[in-house]
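Input set for joint prediction.
Command: fold jointly, output tokens.
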Amino acid sequence: MEMGLVLGLLGAGLAVLLAGTGSAIGVGLTGQAASGAVSEDPDMFAKSLILQIIPGTQGIYGFLIGFLTIQRLGFLGGGLASISVETGLSLLMACLPIGLVGLTSAIAQGKVAATGVSLVAKRPEELAKAMIFAVMVEFYAILAFLVSFLMLQGVTI
Amino acid sequence: MGQEGKYAYAVTRIRVLETRLLDRGKIDRMLDARDAASALRVLSETEYAEVMGELVEGERYEEILGAELKRVYQVVGSFSPDPDLVDLLRSRYDFQNLKVLLKAGHLGIDRDDLLVDLGCIPPDRLKDMAAGDFSDLPPAYRQVVAEAQEEFSSTGDPQIIDLVIDRGMYEYLYTNARVDFLRGYLRRLIDLTNIKTAMRLKRSRAGVIRWAFLPHGSVDPRLLLEAVREPWDAFGPKFATTDYAAVVEEGLRQLEAAGTLAGYECLVDEYLLTYLRQAKYVAFGPEPILAYLLAKELEGRLVRLIMVGKINNLPKETIKERLCDVYA
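tokens >
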């Protein structure tokens, strides 16, 4: 296999791996907090679940960028593309924003969402505010996703 | 992940439990109750219902409070990431039981009714240990007991047992409280207790003994001694530069007006409550767990004051004067 292809694959892998890890940690942390709330008050389930989903989006963004990269490399049918080392490196670079920002923002968002569960446990009527706090972190994950997407589109194969 | 992963579950669970603490409305309804039985009926609408069961006579409030605290300690102990800190708070009841056993032993009477089943060591087991010269006690406890016995045998004064055990207890609590929040709480409690002791000593004009003041406070013991020796006018200003200036000033005013320390004690509870409320801003950490347990104990004291007042048919205003605020 050509070196360019390997570099492209590395990028796709990192996008999925880093953003996915971040989301797993974030969703896991919120899940723990949610269990604490539900163990005392089963009615908390639905509200906690909404908050638990929020740190999961980074993993989806990482997956999308990884998927698009694999597609451009030609792994999904139509034969492998012929890719130079420069192009491979460009693809790798394009994958990094969502990979790294996905990792850090999902962990940060998990902490906010977990405290959000505490907030809702104390004041069940304030779910909207707890969600807004968590969604503020989402903004940066979306920016990173957009840049990764645009960079990916900009690389000509 | 460390701190967050460790506390996410426990703190959220505590937040739900906090919503079940008695709020001002419930306290006021208990105050408004016609008699002790109706006050207990208000209590039976809260989480106390779980332990109340058949206990509906107003006079048996003490059993209800004991059972409720025991339940809370068991529940929180089961999910707290720091079971040692929960045990540390429970150890206070061990020391309390040891005091009862030592004094009853020396006076040759049986006061098992005063033993509380809230400590780390069941009261029955403590009793067996007392019969066997306390040699089975954990070393930290044994040292305190030995000191108390020694002091008692040289003075013959049963009160010295209380003083020595209290001292030993705070020493034990402070050295084992590895969390800054708990140390801060203990330091404030120690300081305010020492100031109360100074007020009491000054009122009774008794000689100051070296056991009187507790260790690990931030107020210099020399300052406390000076406050006891100098006239009342100089008492308040002695503490003007400490954090407790307002509490002492208001406490002295109430002492002068009412002639009892009840007002000061109420102010102390309020002060400590304000400190505990800081835990509300801690998202991941042991603070909310400790604050909840201490708030629950304070709540028990409020209920006790109300019940005692209702049983003795005190007017609502008299009871209310002695009640401090609630945590929630």
